[in-house]
Amino acid sequence: MRSLSIFGATGSVGEQTVDLIRRAGGADAFRVVALTGGRNIARLAEMARDLRAEVAVCAEPSGLAELRERLAGSAVQVAAGPEAIAEAADRPADWVMSAIVGAAGLLPGIRALRHGATLALANKESLVTAGPLLMAEAAAHGARILPVDSEHSAIFQALVGEDVAAVERIILTASGGALRDWPLEALARATVADALAHPNWAMGQRITIDSASMFNKALEVIETREFFGVDPAQIEVIIHPESLIHSMVGYRDGAIMAHMGAPDMRHSIGYALNWPERAELPVARLDLAQIATLTFRAPDPARYPALRLAREVMARRGLSGVAFNAAKEVALDHFLAGGLGFMAMGCVVEEVLEALDGDLGSDSATMTLEDVQAMDHLARIRAGEIARMPRQESR
Ligand code: NDP
Q1: Of the four listed, 1, 100, 114, 233, which is most buried by Cβ atoms within 10 Å?
Q2: Does residue 303 belong to any structural domain of this protein?
């Protein structure tokens, strides 16, 4: 029986993973090793009972008593805290979903690779902050990383049977997010509710706002560079409001392989779950005659400073991806709390990268987990200071 663990089981990607697991037979078809969650203890306990998990772990030690109480009388073991989550990743499982949001997803992913698991990677922050480290761990332990981000799954699928050396360009599609049709001068006044109204995808709160600012796409550009090893100059971004083409690979003969499908994350999660085979999935089928038109437009650099910053990070290397991601997470926290304007998030990230320039180094190949964690810590402190500084766009 195949064994699996889900990190971030109570989130948007986690729930959709659980949905597919249940449809495929649940606890009768899989041995569920570990399920982890954050604050949603009730849902974590419910899933752990239903899937007969060996262990359920919540992120906050303060949640342990409630988790224990909710799982009383079951065979599920309980634990809490970041180290307990990492220890859950030490328990061997054939397939591990990495769907914690943010930099907290890195350590469990690395620990799972160390026992040779197939890591289904939704946590793009792992590759942005520590791509070389993650790839080296996978190579050293004979583990495999499968992309779950819909764009990277699309690229992965468009590369099947092809020679990477024949790739000329990778074209990442972007919906443009909730604010894509707002006038540029109105963006500074956008609220959290405005940025959360995503036109196509139902996702977690943080990634939805990152879609509106294109920080999500910026992370994905860096993720593409780290996962597929292509030159940054080969990576393009195009706005495709319908979100039906999930990304494209252009080859040296001019051919472009595009991956299409309904905007439903269960597609790429299911592909990673069933790889290298394809199984039937409960996703909508496209009616092309009804869709009739697909549209594209180039992203406006003035609206999306995150895309330019991603290019700088890729040129800069070293620990700049760590600082970029940490500063972005802190800026987003301040936007969510109402203390920072929508466009000011980009300013904060840029100022953090400038302030830490001398500490970022330029060698990514020799980075250690300790280097990554130290820079993450430093960048969060600097970003907090910078985000609190008065600025014109701040509210
Ligand atoms: P959600 O915010 O919906 O879920 C995040 C999960 O992580 C939840 O289980 C949450 O627990 C848990 N969590 C939050 N903070 C911590 C922490 N500090 N330590 C441990 N666990 C924590 O996020 P998404 O599902 O939207 O995204 C997950 C990852 O997948 C992100 O990296 C995102 O970029 C990526 N991704 C998401 C897509 C989507 O469609 N949603 C698409 C492509 C990639 P709880 O909810 O219980 O508090």
Answers
A1: 100
A2: no
* Position in ligand 1 atom list of the atom nearest CA 122: 30
Give the predicted TM-score (pTM) of the model: 0.96
For the chain, the C-alpha Rg in angstroms (whole number) is 20
Tens digit of pLDDT for each residue in 54-105?
999 999 999 999 999 999 999 999 999 999 999 999 999 999 999 999 999 9
Residue 163 alpha carbon to ligand 1 centre in Å: 33
Residue 330's H or E segment, with its range, is: helix 320-336
Whole-angstrom distance between the N-terminal and C-terminal Cα of the chain? 54
List ligand 1's pocket residues with C-beta within 6 A: 8-14, 37-40, 59, 85, 99-101, 104-105, 122-125, 149, 201, 203-204, 206-207, 265
Question: What is the DSSP code (8-state) at residue 297?
Answer: B
What residues have CB less than 8 Å from 263, skipping those under 6 apart? 150, 175, 200, 201, 243, 244
Q: Give SS3 for 208.
A: helix
Contact assessment for residue 375 and residue 349, using Cβ atoms and an 8 Å cutoff: no
Q: Are residues 218 and 115 in the same domain?
A: no
Q: Are residues 236 and 163 in the same domain?
A: yes
Separation of alpha carbons 21 and 341, rounded Å: 40
Residues 75 and 112 in one domain: yes
343 C-alpha to center of ligand 1: Å? Answer: 23
Instruction: Please list the alpha-helical segments (H only) found in 197-295.
Output: 205-213, 215-228, 266-274, 288-291
- Report the atom number in ligand 1 closest to the C-alpha of 82: 19
**Same-domain check for residues 117 and 251:** no
Distance 102 CA to ligand 1 centre (A): 7
Q: What span, in angstroms and rounded, lies between the C-alpha atoms of 376 and 82?
A: 16
pLDDT tens string 192-213: 999 999 878 888 899 999 999 9
Q: Do 244 and 263 touch, CB atoms closer than 8 A?
A: yes
Spatial neighbors of 183 by CB under 8 A, at least 6 apart, are: none
CA of 10 to the centre of ligand 1 (A): 8
Q: Which residues of 239-252 are buried (b: 16+ CB within 10 A; e: fewer)?
A: bbbbbbbbbbbbbe
